[in-house]
Design goal:
Strand content: 15-25%
Mean pLDDT: 81
Number of helices: 23
Largest sheet: 8 strands, mixed
Strand order of the largest sheet: 14-21-20-16-17-18-19-15
Low-confidence stretches: 1-7, 339-356, 465-486, 530-544, 589-598
CATH topology of the largest domain: TIM Barrel
Shape: globular
């Protein structure tokens, strides 16, 4: 659409909707979300990529190299820095020299006027989530607030995408120029008493602060005051007075001189034309830039930001004085999301190849760790808190122990298989785990130092004074390498399975096509057992999987709220990509005392809990997150599906045309009645190979590959492959999508080529195997295409 035909090129921050994420970019999207949650955000608007590309088309390029822009890419020798600098200089100069069409000028001015500010700041960014990180690559642009200066400022912000460093980065990452989606966030620039950055990590928050505007920190001229905060208690662990000799502030007029030279950062504007000035100070140097009260306000705000947007890893802030309020007001500025870097060295542990393992078991979650053994033989003795650096040793990893997994560095179990829920959660959390060690709870004593090798399935006794190895598990290293690599999307969509709300932030940079399976019952254990709010009651807290208590009227609002919060964050990260929410699958917990009885049809209690889940999904849909679909687990017959369908229709979700209802293809009888399910309203199926395997072969999923001596590989058995093929074939005939979300494709990558050939709609795997699965899909698709091409010869 041409700019003159509408105003879709501009979005006020308070008008941005969840569906606008790819249009406005990550920066503005997150600020808008925080604004809706009530956080103090300076007003502003976004100029979308539509205007950027239309502007490039109006430029009469003088250099032959640029004539075909923006349809073509730029070609240059990365080993010729002078050539690269010259190309960037020519591009930026023509951007500055080309006037914006008058009709555009009027509309831009109409957005600038309401800001009523003497100066503006422009934040260039890219609306390309799930690509390579660009933090620090694009610098902000500042200017006076009049129309002429603002239009120049916008073009200078556009120049940031064509600076030499940017052009080199696009080429290194394999990003074509025409595929970029440049956006610019425009906000007022105000005088600040203090400003800085908050960096958020799981083990600590670090606050950086300086006097005045933040430019002295961004440009490396000051060393900030540092405050280290302990996240659990919000206690100040450490504070250090910085060196803050340079203070930036807003000029009172364009003629005001600066006492200290300002670095030349903006293309096309001399430093004397900037709306800021710098002074050297000495009297404020011995003082912290934040008072204790202001520091406490910032700490509390940080906690609120984390609660409302856990994906954020840093944000900029400023303390501003307004005429309407005698107290300085804290405002949030730019925000940042996860960027993972590749470590240059692996886990620096004593070589395991030089000694014999004390115990040999089944490797169910990769990684290595040292720790102190803690033996638990019965769920009745589960502590509320494990000691630091604990290796948990248990008979089997049941639901009872799942909340403890986030407190330990490794797990050893006497029983359990690759597809047990405990193994799945351990792999997702990146915790080394070994199962199938006979009498482990007897042979290992509490307090003994052990080394767990989750790749080889080996456990060793260590010297008591052996230091804990520092480093990351193999899985973490693999994923970090994955983030550093540019991937071209495959034709077969790759999705991810998750079960923990603490894993949500890891999805931000993954080049996935959505969440193919959200195991709600495992996520519920996490959010209900360890909420950020106080427990509803001791009775519920003591038996977190006792869902029958949550359907009581006085507990329902808390249940809905705690489930909505992580799903809301997940929907924000995924944007328009699909999220398949699997309804609570309580078959394993149904064996425990206090839960719903096992029956051949849904009990009234189960249906009451299902109604609560529908309220959760409806609340998300009403909030604008309409990319969430429902999967029903373990449906045994059409009649059972119709019971759930009736309640779905009564909930109001069916009024949304985007809403879909799928079922898990895990009960073998579904093979013979899929057309009947489709007639009854099923809109898609997801093959759950973990449960399908146990039902097809009559085995317990927790015992599949439960020991290294088990030679039967059920997931690659011809009978299972035939069943999967039939599901895909019948789904295609019924014209509904068919996904696969079990562990079979990850355990046996050779199965992926069969899946692609048979016509699988998407493949969803656990977080720890995203890279290997992506590679396997790529190779499979190439082999299939090559074979087809050869047959044409």
């Amino acid at each position: 659409m041409n700019l003159a035909e509408g105003v879709d090129n501009f979005y006020w921050l308070d008008e941005i909707q969840p569906s606008d994420r790819e249009v406005v970019g990550e920066q503005a999207f997150y600020l808008s979300h925080l604004l809706r949650q009530g956080h103090p955000i300076l007003p502003g608007f976004v100029v979308t990529a539509q205007l950027f590309w239309e502007f490039l088309q109006t430029i009469d390029w003088l250099e032959p190299l640029f004539v075909d822009l923006p349809q073509s890419s730029l070609y240059f020798d990365v080993n010729q820095p002078r050539q690269l600098q010259a190309i960037a200089q020519h591009l930026c100069q023509q951007l500055i020299d080309t006037p914006l069409p008058e009709s555009w000028v009027q509309q831009i001015q109409a957005y600038i006027n309401p800001l009523n500010t003497p100066a503006l700041i422009f934040y260039p960014s890219l609306s390309i989530p799930h690509q390579s990180p660009i933090s620090g690559l694009l610098e902000s642009v500042i200017c006076w607030g009049d129309a002429e200066a603002a239009l120049l400022g916008l073009k200078q912000a556009y120049c940031e995408f064509f600076r030499a460093r940017s052009l080199l980065y696009w080429q290194r990452c394999g990003l074509r120029l025409q595929d970029l989606q440049p956006t610019v966030l425009v906000q007022p620039l105000q005088s600040a008493i203090a400003s800085g950055l908050v960096q958020i990590q799981p083990d600590a928050w670090e606050i950086h602060s300086t006097w005045g505007l933040e430019f002295s920190l961004l440009w490396g001229e000051n060393y900030p005051d540092l405050y280290r905060i302990e996240p659990q208690t919000a206690r100040i662990e450490y504070q250090h007075l910085g060196s803050k000799t340079i203070v930036y502030d807003l000029k009172s007029s364009p003629q005001q001189p600066t006492q200290y030279p300002i670095p030349q950062k903006q293309f096309g504007t001399g430093v004397t034309q900037l709306p800021i000035y710098a002074t050297l100070v000495s009297e404020q140097q011995p003082e912290f830039s934040l008072t204790p009260k202001q520091l406490q306000q910032l700490i509390e705000r940080t906690q609120q930001v984390i609660n409302d947007l856990p994906v954020i890893t840093q944000f900029h802030w400023g303390l501003f004085q307004s005429s309407q309020n005698p107290e300085p007001q804290l405002y949030l500025a730019g925000v940042g999301s996860p960027e993972i870097r590749l470590l240059s060295h692996p886990l620096n542990s004593e070589s395991t190849s030089e000694r014999q393992p004390r115990f040999q078991g089944l490797a169910v979650a990769s990684g290595q760790c040292n720790g102190t053994a803690y033996i638990l033989t019965t769920p009745d003795s589960i502590p509320s808190q494990l000691p630091d650096n604990t290796v948990l040793v248990v008979p089997t990893i049941t639901w009872d122990y799942l909340p403890l997994l986030r407190q330990c560095v490794g797990i050893v179990a006497e029983q359990g298989g690759m597809t047990s829920h405990g193994a799945i959660v351990a792999r997702e959390l990146g915790i080394p785990a070994v199962c199938g060690i006979v009498n482990a709870t007897v042979q290992i004593k509490t307090g003994e130092s052990v080394f767990v090798d989750g790749k080889r399935g080996e456990v060793y006794f260590m010297e008591q004074d052996h230091s804990v190895n520092e480093g990351l598990s193999e899985q973490s290293l693999q994923q970090q390498h994955f983030f550093e690599t540019h991937f071209i999307p495959n034709a077969t969509p790759l999705m991810v399975n998750i079960s923990q709300s603490s894993s949500i932030h890891r999805l931000h940079s993954l080049p996935i096509d959505g969440v193919g399976l959200l195991r709600s019952e495992l996520m519920a254990i996490e959010v209900l057992e360890f909420p950020q709010h106080s427990p509803v009651s001791e009775g519920i807290r003591s038996k977190f999987y006792n869902y029958s208590r949550w359907i009581e009227p006085e507990h329902q609002p808390a249940f809905i709220q705690r489930m909505v919060e992580p799903l809301n964050q997940l929907a924000i990260i995924l944007s328009s990509r699909p999220l398949y929410y699997r309804a609570l699958d309580l078959r394993e917990s149904g064996k425990e005392e206090g839960n719903f009885p096992v029956s051949n049809s849904p009990s009234l209690e189960r249906l009451a809990l299902f109604d609560l889940e529908l309220k959760i999904l409806l609340q998300l849909y009403e909030s604008g997150y309409q990319n969430i679909y429902l999967i029903l687990p373990f449906i045994r017959c059409v009649e059972e599906f119709l019971i759930y369908r009736y309640r779905i229709e009564s909930s109001g979700l069916s009024h949304y045309p985007q809403f879909q209802v799928w079922i898990m293809a895990e009960v073998p009888s579904l093979l013979f009645s899929l057309p009947d399910y489709v007639k009854a309203g099923v809109q898609g199926i997801s093959i759950g190979t973990n449960d399908l395997t146990q039902l097809l072969f009559g085995i317990d999923r927790n015992q599949i590959h439960s020991s290294p001596d088990n030679q039967i590989e059920y997931e690659r058995h011809p009978a299972l492959k035939k069943a999967i093929k039939q599901f895909i074939k019948k789904a295609r005939k019924a014209k509904i999508p068919c996904s696969i979300c079990g562990d079979a494709p990850a355990l046996y990558p050779e199965l992926i080529e069969d899946l692609v050939r048979w016509g699988i709609t998407s493949i969803s795997v656990n977080l720890d195997v995203v890279e290997s699965t992506h590679t396997a899909i790529t190779k499979s698709e190439k082999r299939i295409l090559l074979k087809a091409a050869r047959q044409q010869i």
